[in-house]
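Researcher: I'm preparing a figure for a lab meeting and need a structural model of a single chain. I don't have an experimental structure, so a prediction will have to do for now. The sequence is pasted below. Please return the structure as tokens so I can convert it later.
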Amino acid sequence: MSIKVVFGSDLGTTRAIATRIATALNAMPLEITKAQAKDLESCDLLLLGSPTYGIGELQCDWEERLDTLYRADLTGKTVALFGTGDQVGFADSFADAIGVLYDIVTEKGAQVIGFTDAFDYEFAESRAFRDGQFVGLVIDQDNQPDMTEQRIAQWLKSLHSESGLEDVLQTGS
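Model: Understood. Here is the structure written out token by token.
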């Protein structure tokens, strides 16, 4: 069984989060700029990560490589999403990027796991907020860096229980 952690990052925050997650899962992080459709298809669990840029846009590497995601056959694929954002500076578009990715992967037939509670966040709107939860792990390194490790650990535990890949996921607990 295999896990792929695919991400985009300009300033390094999402890269650092992707690396932490990949290390905990004994997986290799892969930048979207280097990914091909077969990379997204050839795993048991696919994790996709992106920061939100501007007013709710995907990070530029994701924007430029969305065709890779669209070409991939994600039918029945188990996918988990993670993203970084600033809930204070961008309260009206907080973590929108993973909401965009969620829409694409579900349209392509993927099953998304790893939804998280939003009770420790303060934001006005988010495309990643659906039915009272975020569609994945949301990290705010700008305003809540002290909560990052706990959030990652809790999310990895939820992936462990939701994915059925107990022998692969190593949550560090």
